[in-house]
Each structure stands twice: as C-alpha cells, then as structure tokens.
Amino acid sequence: MYAYPIALTPDDNGTLLVQFPDIPEAITVAESEEDVARFALEALESAFDIYFDSRREIPLPSKPKRGQRTIALSALVTSKVLLANEMVRQGVRKAEMARRLNAHMPQVDRLLDPRHSSKIDAIETAFWTLGKRLEISIS
C-alpha cells in the first residue's frame, strides 16, 4: 500500500492548504485537521485521473520526512496505480487492454478508476495480460 506525504499550510482564513509534493496536481483545502484525510484522498484520486487520461506515469510516493503526515491509498487503488503505470511503460492503450481482456472499453475505464471498486481478480488478470503478476504482502 502506498502512502503519499502531504504538506499542510495554514491559510489566513483558518483553513489548511493541502499539497502533495509528489503529485503537484493534487491540491485541496480543508477546514479542519479532521477533514484533511478525506479531502486529501479525493484530491489525490482526482489527480490520478489526470495522469490516467494523459497516459503519464503516476509518480510513486517519496519517503516522508520525520513526523510528516501521509495519505495512504487502499490496496485496490495502489494496484490500479501500478496497473496504469505498467500500461504506460509498455505503451498499451486502453483499447488494446480491452482487446487483450476480451472486454468493452467501459470495463477497462473502471479498472483504472480509483473511485470504482473493481474486483481484485480483474486487476490481476489485467496484469497477467501485460506479462506481470500482482503480488500482495503483509508488513
């Protein structure tokens, strides 16, 4: 599971500016410390859409500095990030992935949508068509 470091900057109006050093497109504002995680995750997932749509690799998280807060991705979203990055590396477009999976384009779109709860076996199959294997571990 990936955890992206965040930078919190208090605004003069009492809100918190939330930025991701690794994903500059992910920016949001939270009204309280309690709202940071929810809004930050939404901003991060929206930024992933930009990377998916422009067929660019999503930067992986850097190591957080001591005491730096992070936003953790679920195992499912982490696997979608890895899948999208592998498709970019191999030059496999969504249409080609649909052909390899014998699926329709909307199914591939859902595999790459961080907000869609895809089945892990569908993602595992997509990796397999790319000649890769999805491995899960516990730490």
UniProtKB/TrEMBL annotation:
Source domain of life: Bacteria
SUPFAM superfamilies, A to Z: TTHA1013/TTHA0281-like (SSF143100)
InterPro entries named in the record: TTHA1013/TTHA0281-like
This protein's name: Antitoxin HicB
Organism of provenance: Pararobbsia alpina
UniProt lineage: Bacteria, Pseudomonadati, Pseudomonadota, Betaproteobacteria, Burkholderiales
